[in-house]
Write a structure and sequence with these properties.
Elements lengths: L19 E5 L4 H12 L3 E6 L2 H20 L14 E6 L5 H13 L6 E4 L17 H22 L5 E6 L21 H22 L5 E7 L17 H12 L6 H13 L9 E4 L2 E2 L10 H14 L6 H5 L5
Parallel strand pairs: 1-2, 1-4, 2-3, 4-5, 5-6, 6-7
Antiparallel strand pairs: 7-8
Helix pairs in contact: 1-7, 3-4, 4-5, 5-8
Length: 329
């Protein structure tokens, strides 16, 4: 179910002052820890999620923890680069194409650069549900809306000075998924198959994006954060089986599941570790590059099929001008 709790590298000692970061699903779990840590390193961080109330609660908690850690070095897991966190909420509901496009326009209207895009938000056990856009909900939230978001933010990433990063937070669950061209959204399949397929698609997207963005100064990475004791397996609005909740609790009590901070470390390394500057198309586990275990992930024909299928799904929202950003340097 996950990698062992091997020791991980500490947070890199880098200064992100003047950098701008977007983290989707940053109000809880590894998204929260990612956003907080990058803000402590000096970045301006956009907390992109659907609930303003939960986002504001998370931001207040970040600032409280930051104040405590700043006054006591022993409490801090990062070499803090700022007195006050620059963290801002922006609404983003990935189950809605309209909300995703509104987020893009609102962010562009701010005139900010964008140096790091962390596609972190996700759902599991969301039920046999279609979104208002007509897509299977795991497919849209975990993969398709992030794909749309990324394509529309490419001009900003390109214009922001080199060494920009796109981070696609995947999962080891990609390993057990079979390829089904006749059922790409895994309708009427087991919930873990739905979830795993979206995580496989994120890895495949990494390769197709990296190839098309070669020479652009943008690095594309995907990763498995480890088995993490987060809210994704506990939310009341998700149909998580009793057995899965029991397993998550058991792993946590046996200390076989990472806490959210340690789960975020691999994301943080992909985003800011200087050793990955100029690199792309790397899949990471335990904060280091790792070989992939599912042959579908590296199959170029399958990657191209997914790419074309995704564009077809989003044909009303992706123009020729959008696609030109994938070829112009």
């Amino acid at each position: 179910m996950g990698t062992s709790l091997t020791s991980q590298k500490p947070v890199p000692d880098v200064d992100l002052t003047q950098k701008t970061v977007i983290v989707t699903g940053a109000n809880t779990g590894i998204g929260y820890e990612t956003a907080k840590t990058l803000a402590q390193l000096g970045a301006k961080v956009i907390v992109a999620c659907r609930s303003e109330a939960k986002a504001n609660e998370a931001i207040e908690r970040m600032k409280k923890e930051h104040s405590e850690e700043k006054s006591d070095d022993k409490e801090s897991k990062v070499k803090i680069k700022t007195d006050d966190l620059d963290v801002e909420f922006m609404i983003l509901d990935l189950s809605s194409i309209a909300s995703t496009m509104s987020f893009v326009e609102a962010f562009k209207a701010k005139g900010l650069p964008l140096h790091i895009l962390v596609c972190n938000a996700g759902i599991i056990y969301g039920g046999e549900v279609k979104t208002t856009d007509g897509f299977e909900i795991h497919f849209q939230v975990n993969y398709l809306s992030h794909f749309l978001l990324t394509l529309h933010l490419l001009p900003v990433l390109k214009a922001s000075g080199g060494n920009a990063k796109i981070i696609l937070v995947s999962s080891i669950s990609y390993r057990g998924v079979s390829w089904h061209e006749e059922n790409m959204q895994f309708m009427n399949e087991h919930p873990m198959s739905k979830y795993g397929s979206t995580k496989l698609y994120q890895i495949m997207e990494m390769f197709t994006l990296a190839e098309r963005l070669e020479g652009s100064g943008i690095g594309v990475f995907s990763l498995h954060p480890g088995v993490v004791d987060t809210d994704i397996m506990k939310r009341e609005n998700q149909q998580v089986s009793g057995s899965m909740k029991f397993l998550a609790g058991m792993l946590s009590s046996m200390r076989l599941a990472r806490n959210s901070f340690h789960g975020a470390l691999t994301t943080i390394h992909a985003a800011v570790n200087p050793q990955y500057d100029g690199k792309t198309a790397l899949y990471l586990e335990n904060s280091k590059p790792t070989s992939l275990k599912n042959p579908s992930a590296t199959d170029k024909d399958k990657q191209e099929f997914l790419w074309k299928y995704s564009l077809e799904c989003l044909k009303d929202y992706i123009t020729e001008d959008t696609l030109k950003e994938l070829t112009s340097q």
